Amino acid sequence: MERVLVTGVSGYLGKLAAAALLAQTDAELILPVRRLPLARDVEHPVLEELAALGVRVSDEHRRRMVIVPYAPDSHAALSEALAPYPAPEIIHCAGCLDYFNENELWATNVEFTRQLLELAERTAVRRFIYISTAYSSGYIEGSVPEALHTEPERDPTIYTRTKRAAENLVAASPLATLILRPSIVIGHSRTGRYTGKQYGLYQLWSGIERLLSSTWEPDLHALAPTSRVNLLHQDAFQRALLAAREKLPAGAIVNLVSNPKTCPLMRELWDLWMDRVFRPERRYYYEAADDLPVSTMPRRQRALMALASVNIEIAAHDWRFETRGMARLGLGTSFPDATLDSVATCQDLFVSSSDKLQAYLRKFSRSHAAATAAAGAMSCPEISMASLGSATTP
Ligand SMILES: NC(=O)c1ccc[n+]([C@@H]2O[C@H](COP(=O)([O-])OP(=O)(O)OC[C@H]3O[C@@H](n4cnc5c(N)ncnc54)[C@H](OP(=O)(O)O)[C@@H]3O)[C@@H](O)[C@H]2O)c1
């Protein structure tokens, strides 16, 4: 039986990778976890993702998952724990995304990757797949090549620097390696199901839920540039991972991204909130964080922008990704690219699952009706915004 070691299974992408492998291969999965959670705390979420793929979960799936707990912060403990389960392939999904925890970013993304590579080299691993990020280039001019990156002038965050450093380690190892670089992973393209943490788009959405749902505001201000945001549905990530194992030669580096032409504009993503949930009388959109009227904005909107502006600015940068690797995966039209409609499905599920947003919608439906009537009476809302000065029009 084929054996694949997957790191980070207690996290989002590790869980998705494990479920995809259970669904589409016969492999036994070796799943190291730090700390000592109950096996079922790791097993259950993977099996839920498997069921979400339409697979009937059986005992055989359970038997194919070998959870291997080890004491964290000890390289020796990891090697010892894994010794009974030599696996010829590693899919390394563990990582740290805490932009502000520099020590943890280096320790997890770089040092842990180094340890894992050493262990792989000692134990005759044949293939090492590293899950990096589409933004590992940092801010560069032109398109993001499917090759190792040189040092950019500027990184959006230390996170991208550590992911780039890890890519360099992986590529320098004598193992057969693949580096896969997903963009921002969001829920399932058809159902909107999302079980990851509040990262990326979901960081913004949970900030919106927390800060904008207590009262109806007639005026809403948002950092909403007119640039496209590359989002990758979780089922697209799973399909691409499976295809990459089948089709890519050793040494390949692939930007796992949706078709840039179908991805929504950041401004359209805000429109979804304005049109479907908040329905303010006036919306004010800004291209850059410096344009926000910070001193006069309502307090909660200011707090939201402070929370989300780093991610919005990263997403809104003019990222142009080389996509030859995606073409080599040969997924064609079966690949669920992110579109405004598919992201709306994710947002609708987020809104319908949120008690706060549902309470907001119940409480303020009358203000909505008034706002809709007011908007109908206004002949040209864009002009009314422009006349206020700093806002750009949608
Ligand atoms: N989510 C995205 O949109 C996205 C997009 C592109 C790339 N990625 C990449 O995908 C990877 C996983 O992201 P995710 O969204 O799945 O994150 P996540 O949900 O936070 O999961 C992170 C996983 O890594 C493990 N981990 C963290 N620090 C570790 C350490 N020092 N040693 C061993 N394991 C450690 C965590 O284990 P514990 O449960 O023990 O903490 C958890 O299983 C990251 O490397 C990230 O760069 C993610």
Please provide a written account of the structure.
The protein has helices at about 10-25, 40-50, 60-65, 75-80, 100-120, 160-170, 200-210, 235-245, 265-280, 300-315, 325-330, 340-350, 355-365, 365-375, 380-385; strands at about 5, 30-35, 65-70, 90, 125-130, 145, 175-180, 185, 220-225, 230-235, 255, 280-285, 320. It has about 400 residues and is of the alpha/beta class. The longest helix has 21 residues, at about 100-120. The protein is globular, with a radius of gyration of 22 Å. The structure holds NADP nicotinamide-adenine-dinucleotide phosphate (NAP).
Number of helices: 15
- How many E strands? 13
- Taking the alpha carbons of the first and last residues, their distance comes to 56 Å
**How much of the residues is beta strand, in percent?**
5-15%
Backbone structural class: alpha/beta
CATH architecture assignment name of the largest domain = 3-Layer(aba) Sandwich
- Biggest sheet, spatial arrangement of strands: 3-2-1-4-5-7-11
- Provide the CATH topology of the largest domain: Rossmann fold
What radius of gyration results from the CA coordinates? 22 Å
